[in-house]
């Protein structure tokens, strides 16, 4: 597999920035409302996911719309389903493991271990991203040839 670091940074970089902000915001809000570590971990995980995947989906839709418009074709509901399928292939395996096990567990334990909510959540996010991006990038590279041609 070719190392496409610039492409990966373009694809994932802005989504990561949004995800960090949403993760911290969701975790802090949940902590302030509940003072519960489980709620804090889950809220941080899912707020980050919504921001991340919302941005990636918007990016993919925009790119596909431009491609189709240049070819004189319309973006349809079927095209949206193809965009969604490509995302499931790219992130599915990595996301299930990440969102239901790795990230919430790290966001639960690390703030306690480091003695700081923000530092623990941020450290948890960084560590979880390592286990997330390895399978996600491999899947993305494999899916480009078949699932991202519109």
TrEMBL record:
Question: Which parts pass through the membrane?
Answer: 12-31, 37-59, 80-97, 117-140
State the UniProt keywords alphabetically: Membrane, Transmembrane, Transmembrane helix
Q: What is this protein called?
A: GtrA family protein
- Organism equals Hymenobacter cellulosivorans
